[in-house]
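tool_call: predict_structure(chain=1)
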Amino acid sequence: MKVIATEKAPKALGPYSQAYVHNGILYTSGQIGINPETDAVAGDTIEAQAEQVCKNIGTILEEAGTTFDKVLKTTCFLSDMGDFAVFNEIYAKYFTSKPARSCVAVKTLPKNLLCEIEVIAVVEE
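tool_result:
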């Protein structure tokens, strides 16, 4: 197993890694809308946070040597399903290959954020 860690994505808020690669598959921890340059929440709207989440995922994919097109599955967490349509607009800009996906509403997310995404992707070794 190989740990994936980059300063271009937020540091873990707890005892976990940003991601692991095992047998050519990348597994990321859930990524939230924190700007790694400022260590602050990217904004208070679903648009700003979803955009930052996707950028954070992109840096982890890059660090692992893969891309959004190689994502097999995503799991998305929203604090309010009322944000579903707007979230989808941002998500669709990045996940153009339309990977398999689950999207659920949760009671709360870390730092009371509005969304979180985790991914499973192929890494060509």
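agent: The beta strands are 2-4, 19-22, 25-28, 31-32, 34-35, 40-41, 71-78, 100-105, 115-122. Proceeding to next step.
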